[in-house]
C-alpha cells in the first residue's frame, strides 16, 4: 500500500482550507496530517486524525501571523521523503516541505507577500501592534518573497481552486496549475429548501410587505474580507443585515453598526443552524476579493442569490440574473447601488440551487483521486 501524508499551514479555526483538508482526510483516513499549529478547541473536525505538530505548537494562536518566517523555516526542514506522496493544502508556507512526490493544492500565492501585500501594509490587522507588523513586513518582504518563490518550485504538481487563483499562481510563481474546485456539501445545504424555506417568490412578497429586504453574510471577520462595506452599505440603504461569524474585526464591526437594529451579529454556528439563516435571507453579500469563497456557494445551494464583488473566484460561479449580481468597485457606494437595484423576486430558488451542482464535493473527490492515481503511476 502506498504511503500518503497530508500537510497544511495550520489547523486553528474552521474555514475553506480546512474543508479541503477534511475531504482529503476522509479520502485517505490513514494519512497523518502535518501542520505547524493545531488547536482542537478552534476546530473539532480532526479528532479521529493523526495530527502531527512540531516546535511551533508552543506559540500562542495570536502570534500566527507574526511567525511566518519561522513557519517558512519549519516547513522547509520538514522531511517527508519517506512517503510515496504528500498532498499539501496551503495558501502560505506548507508548500516548502521536502517530498519525493508532492501535489500542492494551493489556494493562492502567499497573500501577505504578493497579491494583498498593499492591503496588509495599510492594515496588518494587529491593532496597536500594527506599526511593528508594518515595519517588519516592509523590512523582510524581499527575502521572504525570494524564499516563498523558491518553495513554490518544489511541488511536482500545482492544483488550485479557481481561474483567478490559477492566474495568480502563474503571475507570482511562474507555475501552471490545474483547477479543481474545492468541495461543498451541496446536498446538505440544498435540503434546506424542503425543510425550512418557502419559494423565492413567497419570500420576496414577505420582504416587499415589510419594505425591507433581509441580507446575510458569513465570514471570518478579518479586515481584508471587507465586511465593513456590508455594514456601511446596509446603514446607507436601510436594509436588514445579519452577520454570522467572529474574528479580530468583530468589535470594530459592532462599533461601526452604531447600535442599529437593522444589523444583527450572530456567532459562528453549525452548518445545520447556518442553512436556515441562509435559506431565509433575500440575498447573500460577498464583498471580499477571494480566490474562491465557499460561503456564497453554500448560500446558493440553499436557493439564495448572491451580490458579489466582480473580481476573484466569484467570476467562476456567479451568473448575473440567474443566481446573483456583481458590484464593480470595492466601495460602499458600489455595493449600496447593487443592493438598491437588487430584485430578489426575479430569482427562482431551484434555478439558483442548480447552478451549484458542479461544485459538489463528490466531483472534488473524483478529480483528486484521479490526480493522485496518476501521480503515483508516474513515479
Structure commentary:
The protein starts with a strand and ends with a helix. The strands form two sheets. A seven-stranded parallel sheet has the order 3-2-1-4-5-6-7, sandwiched between helices. Helix 9 (227-237) crosses helix 13 (332-341). The protein is globular and about 65 Å long. Mean pLDDT is 90; it is low at 193-199 and 205-209. With 379 residues, it is α/β, with parallel strands linked by helices. The protein folds into two domains: 4-183 and 360-377, Glycogen Phosphorylase B (Rossmann fold, 3-Layer(aba) Sandwich); 186-359, Rossmann fold, CATH 3.40.50. The protein contains 15 helices and 13 strands. The chain has helices spanning 16-27, 68-76, 117-122, 130-152, 163-173, 186-190, 192-195, 200-210, 227-237, 250-257, 271-280, 294-301, 332-341, 349-354, 361-377; strands at residues 4-8, 33-34, 51-52, 85-90, 102-106, 157-160, 178-179, 214-218, 240-244, 263-266, 283-286, 306-309, 324-327.
